[in-house]
Each structure stands twice: as C-alpha cells, then as structure tokens.
Amino acid sequence: MRFVSVVSVPVGDQEQAKEFYLEKLGFELVAESVFGDDLRWIQVGLPGAQTSLTLVNWFDEMPPGSLRGLVVDCEDLEATYRTLSDRGVLFLGPPSRQPGGVFAVLRDPDGNQLALRQIGS
C-alpha cells in the first residue's frame, strides 16, 4: 500500500455538496461522471493533494452527515478560519489547541464534520 487516495463523504444532495466543497472550501473538481442507474461519481480534492473526496449518496450504511474524524491540515489555521467564516462556512467553535495541534471543526451542509488542523505554533 502507498497512500489513501479517496475518502467517501455521505451527502443527501450531491449538487449542493459539490457547490459547498468547490465554492466555500476551495476544493477542485477532480472527476464527475454518471454510472449505473443514474448514480453520479463526484470527486473533489484540494490542489496538489493525493487524497480526494467522493460525494456519495448510494451507501445505505453511510447516512448523510455521518462522517467524523476527517482532518485537513492548514498552514495558517486562523487565516483559513476567517476566510471560510466570511464565506458562510459554519464552525462548531473557534480554533483551539488540542493534542496534535490547533483545530477548528466545520460542518458541511449535510452535517459531516471536517477538522481543520495546524501543527505546531
């Protein structure tokens, strides 16, 4: 094994989720296609990252909003927090020091939680 390439994010409305990840969080569209019986593969990723996200709505075991524990590293968490807050992204609270770095947890439109982290400082 070499690295994690794709993580599935359970969403209710793929188009709304795609808009949020692209326009609010600054992800890029990696791939989008239709497969099977009108299923859509929407893959988004951060510029230069090896790992990307798929916005899925076809796993019964993964209801929309059930994702927790996904950590996205930031160089300047305070600046990222301010920028995303200005774009209307909702956070559970301001950045705070925790074991492993400084964290700020955000919610996507479905309630999935992504933790932004800055190591050090």
TrEMBL record:
<protein>
    <submittedName>
        <fullName>VOC family protein</fullName>
    </submittedName>
</protein>
<dbReference type="InterPro" id="IPR037523">
    <property type="entry name" value="VOC_core"/>
</dbReference>
<dbReference type="InterPro" id="IPR004360">
    <property type="entry name" value="Glyas_Fos-R_dOase_dom"/>
</dbReference>
<feature type="domain" description="VOC">
    <location>
        <begin position="2"/>
        <end position="119"/>
    </location>
</feature>
<dbReference type="Pfam" id="PF00903">
    <property type="entry name" value="Glyoxalase"/>
</dbReference>
<dbReference type="InterPro" id="IPR029068">
    <property type="entry name" value="Glyas_Bleomycin-R_OHBP_Dase"/>
</dbReference>
